[in-house]
Design a protein that fits this description.
Elements: E1 3-6, E2 19-22, H1 38-82, H2 93-139, H3 141-177, H4 181-265, H5 268-279, H6 329-335, E3 339-340, E4 346-347
Antiparallel strand pairs: 1-2, 3-4
Helix pairs in contact: 1-2, 1-4, 2-4, 3-4
InterPro entries: AH/BAR_dom_sf (IPR027267), F_BAR_dom (IPR031160), FCH_dom (IPR001060), GMIP/FCHO2-like_FCH (IPR054713)
Keywords: Coiled coil
Protein name: F-BAR domain only protein 1
Length: about 350
């Protein structure tokens, strides 16, 4: 019995919407296909679902490894940025690179975790799938027996048909050759028995074929339900895979947008100002310095006082002047104790205040 896939073409359903149906309400031998292998095709197609589940798990596992490797690479970049030179005005920009790289590493690490969770879901579905297939195999034992019975009856029917045709050809040959009546009657008897045998096998085949058609129809419907549930679950797993990647891409886009905004916010003036604040040596300007005259010490070591030497103008000294009654007062003034003001000048006594040329310097 040949079973062909039928697609509801007018409504153009999704690819996973398909069903198996008999080619005709009452298939003939020419329509059954060789050895009635339709059941084996459907059964192995169901088993191929387990292979698809395992391969999907392997694919997601490989994707998780890729995300883990990418996360580690971004962590290395973040470490490289943190070790960037802190000299110069560009140094603060390395913090922007470090933060961005750390966040990207976390995004891909989170995606790796989601992939691992998805792998567990796939494996869980694979275990349920194995149980479903094992149960289905037990339920379809009757269909397997019906297929085997039909195959046996098909072989008997074919042999009986060939025997019947052979006897008919032999009878026709004897009639054409004008064989004796006895031989003709004998050939007719053999042809009649062959026809009866052939009719009997046709009846058995039709009865077995009816049982096969019923069992196969039920099994085909069950295979369809299993296949639809399998494809529905696989698409749901793929949807979870797609959503995880989509969420990560949104997060990565936000990190890049934040990176771009941080670069824009740190202007050239800010970089220069930070450098000045960190490396500045002070804000006070040096004070103006004036000329200071050298002043000899008023009191030498030992606490002894020295008498200042009088400042004299040439031509006006005692030796250059004529003796006067006031000359005797000068030595007395010099031998008297001297008083010095804050600026280092000697203060004369009252009797010599009018002599402006008698100031002494220290």
């Amino acid at each position: 019995m040949n079973w062909r896939p039928v697609l509801d073409v007018p409504h153009l359903p999704p690819v996973d919407c398909w069903r198996w149906a008999p080619a005709s309400p009452r298939p003939t031998m020419e329509e059954t296909g060789e050895k009635n292998g339709g059941f084996d095709v459907l059964y192995h197609n169901m088993k191929h679902g387990q292979l698809a589940t395992k391969e999907l798990a392997e694919f997601v596992r490989e994707r998780a490894a890729v995300e883990e490797t990418y996360s580690k690479s971004m962590s290395k970049l973040a470490k490289m940025a943190s070790n960037g030179s802190q000299l110069g005005t560009f140094a603060p920009m390395w913090d922007v690179f470090r933060v961005s790289s750390d966040k990207l590493a976390l995004c891909h690490l989170e995606l790796m975790k989601k992939m691992n969770d998805l792998i567990r879901d796939i494996n869980k579905y694979g275990d349920e799938q194995v149980k479903t297939h094992r149960k289905t195999k037990e339920e379809m034992v009757g269909t397997v027996e019906a297929v085997q019975a039909l195959q046996v009856q098909s072989g008997h029917l074919q042999k009986s048909k060939e025997g019947y045709h052979t006897k008919c050809l032999e009878l026709d040959r004897l009639r054409k050759e004008g064989a004796p009546q006895k031989e003709l009657e004998k050939a007719e008897l053999k042809s009649k028995k062959a026809a009866e045998s052939f009719a009997l096998y046709i009846e058995k085949y039709n009865r077995v074929g009816g049982e096969f058609e019923q069992k196969m129809s039920e099994s085909a419907q069950r295979f369809q339900e299993i296949e639809e549930a399998h494809l529905r679950q696989m698409k749901q797993l793929i949807k979870s895979y797609s959503h995880s990647i989509e969420d990560t891409h949104v997060q990565v886009g936000q990190v890049h947008e934040e990176f771009k905004q941080n670069v824009e916010n740190i202007g050239i003036d800010i970089l220069i100002q930070r450098f000045a604040e960190q490396k500045g040596t002070g804000k006070e300007r040096p004070a103006s310095v004036g000329f200071e005259e050298y002043m000899a010490a008023l009191t030498p070591e030992g606490g002894k006082k020295t008498r200042a030497k009088a400042f004299r103008i040439p031509g006006l000294g005692k030796r250059d002047k004529e003796p006067d009654s006031t000359d005797s007062a000068v030595p007395e003034a010099l031998n008297s104790p001297l008083e010095v003001d804050d600026e280092g000048f000697v203060i004369r006594a009252d009797n010599t205040q009018n002599d402006i040329l008698s100031f002494l310097s220290i």
